[in-house]
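Project standup — Tuesday

K.O.: blocked on the structure for the chain from last sprint. Re-posting the sequence here as requested.
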Amino acid sequence: MKIKALTLLLALVACEEIPVAVSGDEENAVPVVAPFVPREPEVNDSSDPCFAGSYLGLLGRQIDNVQIAPAGGLRVVRPGEIPTAEERLVQRLSVRVNGSGTVEQVYCG
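H.V.: unblocked you, prediction finished:
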């Protein structure tokens, strides 16, 4: 159990956005974050119809810094928004963010 917890912790720490370059002069420098690229699905898993597992690297990133277009569509669920059952599409990737726009959950629906 401790190994699983440690593995999860290390995976979450690895998701932190790390500036890869700085643009502009040193005083007004804006960090440039490496773009997110979803990984290829390892298997065609019927329990993951939107390939959410390929987008786990979004966890901890700012949604405003991410440009993705999953095949089934993308829905961003912000605090206070309650997705309704009519909006649930199993092929669509849904991303839940916190108040500061940080991705906290990635799932199908």
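K.O.: great, moving the ticket to review. The first strand starts at residue 19 and ends at 23. The beta strands are 19-23, 30-33, 74-77, 93-97, 103-108.
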